[in-house]
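note to self: the first set is below, dont mix up w the second
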Amino acid sequence: MNVSKKTKVFGLFVAVAAVSVASSLLTNYLYDRQGNDFAFKGNRAPVSYTAYGGNGAMAGVDFTNAAELSVHAVVHVKVKTPVQTQQFGFPNDPFFEYFFGRPQQPQQQQEMPMQEGSGSGVIISTDGYIVTNNHVIDKSKEIEVTLNDNRTFKAKLVGTDPNTDIALIKIEAENLPVILFGNSDSLKVGEWVLAVGNPFNLTSTVTAGIVSAKARNINIINSQMKIESFIQTDAAVNPGNSGGALVNTKGELVGINTAIASQTGSYAGYAFAVPVSIVQKVVSDIRQYGIVQRAVLGVSMGDITDKLAKEKNLKTMEGAYVAEVVENSAAEKAGIKKEDVIIKVNDVKVKSAAQLQEQIGRYSPGDKVSITVLRDNKEVTVSAVLKNRQGNTGVVSGDVKTDMLGAEFKEISDKIKQQTQLDYGVEVKSVSKGKFQQAGIKPGFIIVKINNQAIRSVEDLEAALDDAVNTSDKFKVFNIAGMYPNGKIAYYAVNLAE
């Protein structure tokens, strides 16, 4: 195969993987603690957490001011995480591997060895708030931050948002250098940007490239409510750059470097950053509420393909096609209909489903937005009051009550993770009269999977509930797999239709 053919094959591989949801079900991942990054393999583009790319000579362009303004505010983040090699307290259950994805051996409890990983972070306040990627600090027991001047601090976790792969940590310090927030919306394809971070433990590294694309959905975030609308760049980024800064030529923060497309796990030319427009909302909510106040429109959507446009007689190839409208959602209340094409949110053009996710993700429950749709190829503008996952406009706390199930839920603590050796799960905080009580589910039960989908957060549970309730299947069943803190594994089937 010649070079041009190889390039075409890889390009097609990326394109297909980016739009295929079904193919992601066949994909597994590897976790590299040396770089603290995920590398995906399988039927989609090889993507790993951190970015990379390189650009040739850049004659006539001076990046020295932008580098000077940003490099001092980018920190080296080091973490210690328990090695997930030994499990204990589990009975010899032949169904465990099917539900939980890994075999279990009953073993004696012992102190878990620790492994080290590293990434980058960006100081956003003079008193020590630092934004980084969730995957950099995920499951960590210790977080250490080293500043550009070599001072080292212990950091505490303030909050995380797996749906955007953003986390907020804090160190106790004053008068720290910060990066000013820029405007990621104003970025243009072809515009110069700098990537600042700590690849391969090489501190204070600056590379340059251009914005290659915007609003990329690469299907890397493992969450049912994920928001993927990445800035793509060819600035060279490698393992250890995750959580670092993507800045414009003014030295302003426009993104958080998050992922790479690579067949090797190292720089190959494609890098992806979370836009600062998303980062600002996430960080603000975490600081104020401890959890992101996620607005929901209430539609199932997809991009417009040539085949779809011909089948539905659509006169546009841009916008988010509405496949389904959730009952009692903000979209239904606003009058949005199935087969509408959403083309604007508050007069901001929407060219894809990823862009619609990004736009809605900027708002909070209760916000009123103008939605412009194409219906029968004619523009119609409606007003929608966005809701939260509970179907109302109130503030969501870390503990969520779901009346239908008769239970309250919260994400499991680090203590429970260590005790059970589970990487994730949602704990049943309390049970009252309802579906869970009828099924025999007790308080303390940790939900790990529902209908064979991983439940990593309360939002994942709520999304699974929505999917089950709104399915066309008359048997609206919750197949739940999980365990109790004492190690007892349990499976429940909850009929939501009764």
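second set (the one i keep forgetting abt)
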Amino acid sequence: MNKEDKINYLALQEEYQRRIKEDPAKTFVPHVKQKPFIDSILKSQSYESWFVASNRSGKSIAGAYIGANMARFGSPNSKKPTAGWVVALDYGISRDVIQPKYFDNGFVPAGQSHPPFIPNREIKEWRVADQLLLLKNKSIIGFKSADSGSKKFQGADKDWIHFDEEPPKNIYEEATLRIGAGRRLRIFGTCTILPPENMVGGVSWILSDIIKSGNPDIQIFGSSLFDNPHLDENEVNRLINKYPLNTPIGRIRLLGEYLSGITGAVCYYSFNRDIHIRPQTVFYPRKPLCLFIDFNVEPMCMGVGQRDGDLFRVYKEIILETGNIPQIAEVFKQTYPSPGAEIYLYGDASGKSRTSQTGMNDYQTFLSCMKNYPAPIVLKVPEKNPPVNERLNTVNLTFKDEYGQSNVEIDPSCTFLVEDLELVVRDSKGGIKKSHNKKDSYYIRTHISDALGYWLTYDNSPNILVNAGGYTNILENNSINIPKPQYFKGDKYR
């Protein structure tokens, strides 16, 4: 340590000692992204809130502020002493990172931005062996380690639980059962959504089960390191150099984005429901109607849209939990009895090789079901599918190109497609993860998003369609008579 560093260190220690004499609950000023998260627990009736943010965004200290206030002053609906847990990933993190934010455990790091939120004068006893902090007001805080196993989370009821970083799902489920009679358990979590260790195609359960659940009883807040006013420019630049912002890990660690894999475990990482979900009220009767279809049986999926210049509009999804090609063709005909222009049909190239007992492949079967439909059908299916990575890259660039421009809009009624875009992940080989276990909730995933990908890829990447045979009116050797198109007047049709 050089002379300048020693001077800075002594100055920090002097400032730390001065501030610790004051009430830390009053000296702490949350930044603009911390405050709504804190208020959701301490000043409202929210019973579960998560601060899903970047590294160095101040998320852990915001969680500690809430927990310390719950212990010192009670919950919003009761000023009685409380019993709470603070759950860290392991004992070392609890001791060195989390506990010093709550109280002076002897490991408070030099330069910590704020003194511990529980002053020594309010502490009755620190039981190191049991990891229990007893306050003079009879509140109790238990510091727990997620790696100790779910059995360690059984026992007495709690008033609040602070999860620092994402715990194993079984730990969360066991801990949140600690609800006593007449109590309302307050849960608040602070985490960065990182990929599960050693799982290329894994997905954070916090992302799938909490953030994307749509549960109105759970509030989600976010922040990036750029929201933290306590970080100096040199530290910010150091982190940017270590985790470039144009990489998935940079977007996770520095921007707090909901990516669940360094290798892009979430397949459609460019999809953002705040940007891409827009009510689709305009139908263009003189423009082709685009169908993207997946012939899977459970479920059988079809999406309906149109291309408006560079913009891909998705109007509707047709999802059959169990179904066949004639059934989904019939639903489409009932939904769009007179489209006005031709139909463009997109899908998996392998559908050309699968044949039924009738001797027809999937596309021929679909076309046979459409033989009396008042519009010509143009098949836009390549002879061979593009590589998966090429398709995923094309889809992500369509959702958000290199200039930040979005070229996809999806009607909010397409809930199944939206869930697919948010939850489909890569497998251990870098492909798209599939599930063949019907008891697995992921079993129904990937089909409708695959179909959308075939549409976007075919229309966006003509260079990959080498030897595709071009556009063909229905399939070879098909003699179905398709009548001339009928056109509607006006500019709207739904």
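remember for set 2: The first helix runs from residue 3 to 20.
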